[in-house]
Amino acid sequence: MIARWQRILLLCILLVMAAWLMWQWPQSPWHAVLGALLPLGIYLMVMAVEFVLMHLTNRADAAPRARQLQVISAWWAEVWVALLVFCWRQPFRHQSTPDWLPAQATGKRGVVLVHGFMCNRGLWLPWFAHLHARGHAYVAVNLEPVMGSIDEYADIIEDAVRRVTAATGQAPVLLCHSMGGLAVRAWLRAHQADGRVHRVLTLGTPHGGTWLGRFSRAVNGRQMSLAGDWVVALQRAEPAGRAALFTCWYSNCDNIVFPATTAALAGADNRLVEGVAHVQMALDAGVMKDCLEEIGRA
Predict the structure, then answer these.
(1) 285-297 pLDDT, tens per residue?
(2) How many Å apart are CA 44 and CA 25, to the nearest integer?
(3) Residue from 107, 123, 114 nearest 161 by CA
């Protein structure tokens, strides 16, 4: 569903840009080009506002505050990474590489990949070749309904875990970006599945909610409000020791999940990554290397 929405939105934007160019070019080519680039300008501005809000909010956070140069660099990187993910990989390439469940077990643990808010399995495309080459079976889920409750994703994750476990004979590692980490925690709560997962790796997951959650109109977006009712209830329902299953990467330049330490989880192995933005974190070479090493040690 999210792929369809993103294709339609991208097509509408391109059609409007083309129509403006054709209409204005005879009068003023300069005016035509500037008008056609307006959607890109709005995108850059919205992204910049996110980073400004993040940097201001992080003043009171326990994580080391990013330097201004780090913030600018993360903004520029996120501009290009988000365009690649939301305008190409998710709308057009999300089904280009299928899940890999080898008929004969490789002796390696499998991986379940769980994306975040307004994403699909296309987010993980660069990971698939690395996992395959290392012999790790994998299933990358699509969480739907897109704007439904996070609790509704538990059965989707349950099915993926069962498939990977059946293919490998071992409890899998769950790799999660953003909201995906909360979806896995909701799955653990719903299915009491602590003994059926080896490790949970989260990248920029708003374990304590996020400051931006207050502005969402989606059900799952509101559930991710900073210290909101849903995340508080989730934490209270978790048994002592569950957090020890988690390794959580968080960043002082995360433009979606902030304050920064809301992406850390009390009792988990929390790892700060400096100067990396939100979507960028799922594709950052250093984070990917660390995660693959964790999966390999599992």
Answers:
(1) 999 999 999 999 8
(2) 24
(3) 114
Instruction: Give the CA angle between residues 126, 103, 195 to the nearest 5°.
Output: 75
Distance CA 135, CA 295 (A): 11
Percent of the chain with pLDDT over 90: 98
Statement to judge: residues 115 and 88 lie in one domain: no
**Claim to verify: residue 70 and residue 213 sit in the same structural domain:** no
Do 42 and 122 lie in one domain? The reply is no
Task: Please state, in angstroms and rounded to a whole number, the distance separating the CA atoms of residues 292 and 132.
Answer: 11
Q: Count Cα neighbours of 85 within 13 Å in the Cβ-side half-sphere.
A: 25
Q: Tell whether pTM > 0.85.
A: yes
Token pair 């960028």 in the structure block, residue = 280
Q: Are residues 271 and 123 in the same domain?
A: yes
Residue 98 located in a structural domain = no
At 172-213, the pLDDT tens digits run 999 999 999 999 999 999 999 999 999 999 999 999 999 999
